[in-house]
Amino acid sequence: MAPTKKGGKKTAATQEKKKGGFTKVAKADWKEGFKKKQVGVSDMTLLTTISNEAVNDNLQKRWTNGEIYTYIGSVLISVNPFRDLGIYTEEIISRYKGKNRLEMPPHVFAIAEGAYYNMQAYKENQCVIISGESGAGKTEAAKRIMQYIAAVSGGQDSSIQEIKDMVLATNPLLESFGCAKTLRNNNSSRHGKYLELMFNDRGEPVGAQITNYLLEKGRVVGQVDNERDFHIFYQFTKAASEEQREMFGLQGPETYVYTSRSNCLSVPGIDDSADWKDTLKAMQVIGLSKAEQTDIFRMLAIILWLGNVQFEEMDDGNSKVSDSGVTDFIAYLMEVDGSVVEKVLTQRTMETQRGGRRGSVYDVPLNPAQAGSGRDALSKAIYNNLFEWIVSRVNISMKPRSPHTQIIGVLDIYGFEIFQDNSFEQLCINYVNEKLQQIFIELTLKAEQEEYVREQIKWTPIKYFNNKIVCDLIEERRPAGIFATLNDATATAHADPTAADNSFIQRSAGLSSNPHFESRGAQFLIKHYAGDVMYNVSGMTDKNKDALIKDLLDLVAGSGNSFLQGLFPDRPDPNSKKRPPTAGDKIRASAGALVENLMKAQPSYIRTIKSNENRSPTEYDSKAILHQIKYLGLQENIRVRRAGFAYRNTFEKMIERFYLLSPATSYAGDYIWKGDPKSGCEKILTDTGIAKEEWQMGVTKAFIKNPETLFALETMRDRYWHNMASRIQRAWRNYWRYKNECATRIQRFWKNNKEGLAYAEVREYGHQILAGRKERRRYSLLSYRRFMGDYLNVGPAKSPLGETIRTACGLANESVLFSARSQLLVSKLGRSSKPSPRYLVLTDKAVYIVVTNNKEGKIVTSLERKINLAAIRGVALTNLRDDWMAIQGPICEEGDPIISCVFKTEFITHLMQTTRGQVTISIGPEIHYNKKKDKQAVIKAVKDETVQKDDVYKSHAIHVASGEPPNSVSRPAAKRKAGVVRPITKGKLLRKGGPSTDQQRPKPVSKPKPAAQALPGQSKPAATAKYTPAPASTSYSAPAQSSYSAPAPPPPPRAGPAAPPAAPQKPMYKAKFAFQGQEGELTLAKDDEVELVQKDDNGWWLVKRGNEEGWAPYNYLELVPPKPVAAPPPPPPVRRPVPAPAPTPAAATPATGKKPAFPGTNLNKPQPKPPITGPKPGAAASSSAPAPKVGGKPPVPSAVRPPVGGSKNTPGSVRPAAAPPGQMDLAAMLAKRAQHMN
């Protein structure tokens, strides 16, 4: 039994030692005082006093505080709270996901998480065994196990989600048909269920299977007071639709004998109408069709109406049916004749087996008691077989969608029962619980102690009660147990149930030698592990017989309802001398199979306890709970858990799981230990630092005492892969850091050169434009001065200001070449002109002047003027070093803009490049411009050395100091200082130092890699995953240079002219079958070869044979393999190198326009029969199904058969496949591209 998974608790804060030796302690959190205090102990192995009273006191404290779950090691104890605690939400599921048992409080989700983790980690089947008496919460625990596994098992595939939905849908479906209200539980399971969830290797559910055990079918026909029949009968009679009521003659549950006999029609806390909707929804999720649902409801109606068949005693003592209308309606539901039903229920056909009249057949009338017994037997048989059909149908729907590797089983079976009247049903139920208790003892107590002795482990033995003696009392064949004695009594007096009961009483006297059995007349006592139970013998042998009489089987066989006949597939052979299996044989075989399945899996245990008999959320019955604690053996379980070891496994399994944790056993993921598995396992536990008293070495297994130790090993194993991944990531990051640093240096050098050259070329072009005609500013000649162009980021590299300017200009697809701040000369009325700030933008289409104004307290940026490049005639500048220029645009009222811009030379350069030199650049002592449409003006440039900075405009004159000579050029680039190469030393894996110290540093010597060894139990070393690169394309690589220089070989002779390529072969197809064509079609004989002309998506191809052309079905054709092309002859030998003439290019072969054969054509497949050809385009097909015929309805007292109409099948229309899109016209595409470029 493997405890659940990885590492122990994580500490709230890690302690780090500083250089001064001080230890950093985590600061206390004031919220600690407000956390929920733990009541009692969550794991009862920590109890100071081990006694039943101490266990009960701890459970009571926790139950009162709303904590219903408690551990005994890995066993979960659950006390039913009889109220909703809100502890099964999605949030709670997420808390337990991926956590081990010690990290979270006790919960049923922790058991589910442990089983799911162990299945994935150890690749072993798991099972969850839930035990306890009726009403203790077993069914609820099983539902929560399935809820958790469905939530955490992952899988995005629709089929996986479908399986999850079906598994969850089985709960309401099987609860409706298999649960009922009893005196001890409102939702008591009256059957056993073992659900096996099947998972693939990724831990995703791919299927499920349910095994059913011993449905209590006697509850269908009778219950004690204040109990109910199965839930489905009350849901059906209360919430069925009007159509169903009319079809099956349904009335309320109070009108049927089977549902009203116990005087309990409603149960507090159970809404039959809401549960009916859940049942119908579950049927849809499972995949039950409407017809199948109708058949199920028909069987329920038959059972309900059978209960209403009453018998009257006639003068001769025989029985007759009181109301033949009821039997007629039952016959209508069963689709048989009404008189046959009445005869089968009141008479029995007997065939003589001995005497002179052997083989004679007699109709023996039945008295009312016998007739009622036969009626009830038929009802029980129909319901039992219906339930088994539902379970088998659910299994069909949940069958695995793909191969499965592991299984998690969840056992939800009826609990131990002690009633006032205990009969054969209680004997079977308690027998199964004895078997489950025996499994618990075998796996947790007896087997554990025997294993310690066998493995020579030191520990303290614990005494316990072994219930094998009770199981043998019930199931043994020799000496005969109770089941065998019942079979013998039934066989000797099979015709008379009373005589068979008396025979059993006489035979059971031989069982008195067993100390757990006492015979008391018409009763007998069995001392079960859960208490003494008194059983009544009356009717026990008849229930054990479990067989329908031949008349009832013939009635079912003669039914016109195929579903009803299918419920009774196996009829006993009357001529067979072999005794048919009894109910005792069946339950014994089922219990044996269940035990065998459970023993193959690693079990997890949930022991449920019922807090009180009144289902009260506030009552804690200490006396009853003490009794449950005693018979569940919790005290002995605690003692064994404290004295034993929590985990054990073979040396080979331990090494396979944990060999990574020791450097002596692993290297780079390979197993390298050369010693025996035992020494290797001991080395692992020693190297991990686990205390010696925490583990022991046996003969074949290693034993670990506490689960915390195992969790620590699992945490270290998980951390190993994280550490390896971190080391790889660290080396990879250092590699990229080194690579990026190298790239940065290369890029920096490249930018300083290549980009500098590009910018220098643009700047040099600007110098050529000025052509020594204008004085220069000193800053314009700096070596690092570059013409960047878009200084305001109006183009792609956007900024908030650039976005504002771009929006104001309304730029869409224009490329921004230049943008900068400037000043525009603005004329004022009655005053001299004055410079005003503007934004100047040059694109590939126009020049934009943008202004920012303050309007009503808001800053507004707007376009002031736009001048198309085609309208610009020239640009006028002075010959001094000022920044003014006039853009000579079209003659208009606005005139030419006079702009001062620091980057004027760059603006003119980009303008000349964009317009391809079509703009005139005028440079002189004056700037001539159009002030208005018909008015010209002049601005003079005056040298004024008093101007310290920039220039000054005043009264049509620009005052500026002297600048650099007009013939000045840019300064040469400054030389870099010769410095030391800076090494790249960032990163922990890179050593300090640089190239200068490489020769002084000794080269590291790598250790040889240890040879990988085979894991214990394997013949070959475990393969480690290695990266295999994809094969690269063939390329020539120069060989390494050698010190030896061989003489150069003579040049190879020139090849002759290349042969023209062979013409492409036409795809040919061969007819697989003969085809008789009609008009427009090509008639084909088998093995005729045709040429493909055109393919259509409708299943017909246009083919050609000689001069004939026509349509043929594509699935009659198969591709003919192309003939191999002969290799070209070798070139003739050349005696001397003669220059060959240029090869003549081969003529281009026109495309044939034919597509290759579709992929997947198998030429070696055996030829099947000719397929059915579909219609050619335009043909239509239609079909219709005839309406089902329904027989007539006889008159019934309480039901009217609903009209059933025929159903018409409308054939679905098949859409032709869409034609492939056409290719773009090449000429149109090229024209469009040329237009875009212009």
TrEMBL record:
Q: Where is the composition biased (Pro residues)?
A: 1047-1064, 1121-1144
Where the record annotates domain Myosin motor, the positions are: 39-718
- Molecular function via GO: actin filament binding; ATP binding; hydrolase activity; microfilament motor activity
For the TH1 domain, which residue ranges apply? Answer: 776-966
| SUPFAM superfamilies given in the database record | P-loop containing nucleoside triphosphate hydrolases, SH3-domain
Q: Is the Cytoplasm keyword given for this protein?
A: yes
Q: Where in the cell is it found?
A: Cytoplasm, Cytoskeleton, Actin patch
**Which family does this protein fall into?**
Belongs to the TRAFAC class myosin-kinesin ATPase superfamily. Myosin family.
User: Function of this protein?
Assistant: Type-I myosin implicated in the organization of the actin cytoskeleton. Required for proper actin cytoskeleton polarization. At the cell cortex, assembles in patch-like structures together with proteins from the actin-polymerizing machinery and promotes actin assembly. Functions as actin nucleation-promoting factor (NPF) for the Arp2/3 complex.
State the protein's name: Myosin-1
> Which species is listed as the source?
Serendipita vermifera MAFF 305830
The top of its lineage is: Eukaryota, Fungi, Dikarya, Basidiomycota, Agaricomycotina
